[in-house]
Design a protein that fits this description.
The structure holds two protein chains of two kinds. By secondary structure, chain A is mainly beta. In chain A, about 0% of the residues lie in helices and about 50% in strands. Classes of the chains: A mainly beta, B mainly beta.
């Protein structure tokens, strides 16, 4: 079945460590996105990529980094520079970056800093 | 910039009650409008969408009409079920070919009691 796979579902990180969240899609979509969700809030865009080897910062990119070396993969690294990384992270993709194209979401990764 | 305002929750209804979740937006031009649903512990799923004024999106008994004159996209369902309990997000996407990113409202938690 086609879809987006995020792993792991739960992740614990010690303060000062970098951690990488995986996002893979087999939908042959060009565009991919990372969002952060905090309790009682909407989703905020961290980074997005419209094509391989290209990505742009979203609204809250500080303390995060991404790469897009393959069309199907868009990993997110949460660095030690991110001051408040505990959150639910959602990866999404769309067929292209067009305004009316549907975004498909993964199941999310819940990151907790301990 | 673009923004989406949803009615605050949580909303608690009895089974078979009528549901309205208000959503208004601020955007330039003619954005596409979406409703996404998030079940507990999962990612978001597209519920319905509308891409131009007066369009009505519908799915699973839910409906929403794109009202440009009132900049609104209210979600309605005539008879809710327990299985509709979830968080509902209103979102907009700018005119196709522009910024290509979704702006989300803060979400409305719906609980339906048997």
């Amino acid at each position: 079945d086609g879809g987006i796979t995020q792993s792991p579902k739960y992740l614990f990180r010690k303060e000062g460590q970098n951690v990488t969240l995986s996002c893979e899609q087999n939908l042959n979509h060009d565009a991919m996105y990372w969002y952060r969700q905090d309790p009682g809030q909407g989703l905020r865009l961290i980074y997005y990529s419209q094509i391989v080897n290209d990505f742009q910062k979203g609204d809250i990119a500080e303390g995060y980094s991404v790469s897009r070396e393959k069309k199907e993969s868009f990993p997110l690294t949460v660095t030690s520079a991110q001051k408040n990384p505990t959150a639910f992270y959602l990866c999404a993709s769309s067929i292209d970056g067009g305004g009316d194209s549907e975004a498909f979401f993964g199941q999310g990764t819940r990151l907790t800093v301990v | 910039g673009d923004s989406v305002t949803q009615m605050e929750g949580p909303v608690t209804l009895s089974e078979e009650a009528f549901l309205t979740i208000n959503c208004t937006y601020t955007a330039t031009g003619y954005p596409s409008l979406f409703w996404y649903v998030q079940y507990p512990g999962e990612g978001l799923q597209l519920l319905l969408k509308a891409t131009k004024a007066d369009d009505k999106g519908s799915n699973k008994g839910f409906e929403a009409t794109y009202r440009k004159e009132t900049t609104s996209f209210h979600l309605e369902k005539g008879s809710v079920q327990v299985s509709d309990s979830a968080v509902y997000f209103c979102a907009l996407s700018p005119l196709a070919g522009s910024a290509r990113q979704l702006t989300f409202g803060s979400g409305t938690q719906l609980t339906v009691l048997p």
